[in-house]
């Protein structure tokens, strides 16, 4: 057992824990006890449920004599958003009237457990994963940098748990930005894979046809380790396609060989946030210093696609996904209810026409990607205080999705990365957007970006080596 001060100060990156285990600096029971200590000292609202101390220590003890070489995630603590099924814990989607015990783990969760990871508990979310602000639930976490600010959502608890050093990584869900916005607002990595690359079997869906499971982590290399395990075809999930990962990431290009598109000035919108605007300008300068060729583009088709997530007939799918779970509409958070009820005004014909429009935009975007390799945008255009949402919850939430809503609709891959700490002390992040199934390419470039920025990890955990 290492001395208390040492284990209390370490970060939970995968390399840190694995090295500590191999060097016998500490064992898996020590780490689980430290997780429990940190949770007790942290925000209660990060979690909807946590396994009992007895159960967590029992799981750790079961690994003490396991062969670490056979378990790629040996003793790694993780958490999942509470719309993902985990045996022994309720699934609630942050709506207690929905709560039920699933019959089995979600496909991705089971893979991680089989790899030696330790599931700590389930994280709070914007109710039914409807929102990017992170406060649309009976209780909600706050930003890990400043409690006056929103944590971002809908995967609020998942991101804050990683940023606060409670777990090594977490799984969320992402329909229109839920795996990217809270990452940016809490200074961590938020990797959103191409829809269909990771099985979403075993969760409450928002828009099942393009929902995906993102990975929150301190480092891109950690996200890649998790991704490599759970990225696979799953015959039980009809929405999961074949995935053929590259065998050698060393073949992937660096920034110096990339043409990177950014929105032209008329489409850059920071909703009056000059600090975010300045941070993005610095990020573009860094991109160029890494050797990338920057290319401005007409961003209108991406904005048009994003509007369809909540402002058109596509909202009908969200209603269809959750209506069977709603037992008492009076318990639904008011702004969530207002959004979902919009679905009732659309017909089947309206939905078909909108799907045709989306297919046309996808074709246009495919053609655009022949002129550049990837896109860089601000992950979030601004950040709001919790108090600001009380007077205008829906439009401020919509503002947060300006650069995220379109990605899944257009079947794109995306990676949210920390970029700057603003002069007001709040984090600012950028997002790299690639074509379909360019997931490994983004993670490879993300590692380069993190080595260049050398930002501290999360809100407390030291500098990248």
Proportion of helical residues? 25-40%
How are helices and strands ordered from N to C? Answer: HHHEHEHEHEHEEHEHEHHHHEHHEEH
Q: CATH class, please? A: Alpha Beta
**What is the CATH topology?**
Amidase signature (AS) enzymes
Summarize the biggest pleated sheet.
Answer: 11 strands, mixed
The beta-strand count equals: 11
Present the secondary structure layout:
Blueprint: H1 4-9, H2 14-22, H3 28-40, E1 47-50, H4 53-62, E2 77-81, H5 107-114, E3 118-123, H6 156-163, E4 169-171, H7 181-185, E5 189-192, E6 215-217, H8 220-230, E7 259-263, H9 274-289, E8 293-297, H10 300-307, H11 315-322, H12 334-340, H13 348-368, E9 374-378, H14 393-400, H15 406-409, E10 413-421, E11 427-434, H16 439-453
Parallel strand pairs: 2-3, 2-4, 7-8, 7-9
Antiparallel strand pairs: 1-3, 4-6, 5-6, 5-10, 9-11, 10-11
Helix pairs in contact: 3-4, 8-16, 10-13
Structure characterization notes:
The structure is a single chain. The chain is α/β, with parallel strands linked by helices and 465 residues long. The chain has one domain: Alpha-Beta Complex (Amidase signature (AS) enzymes), CATH 3.90.1300. Helix content is 34%, strand content 12%. It contains 16 helices and 11 strands. An 11-stranded mixed beta sheet has the order 1-3-2-4-6-5-10-11-9-7-8, with helices on both faces. β2, α5 (107-114) and β3 (118-123) form a beta-alpha-beta unit. α3 packs antiparallel against α4 (53-62) and α8 packs antiparallel against α16 (439-453). The radius of gyration is 21 Å and the shape is globular. The relative contact order is 0.13.
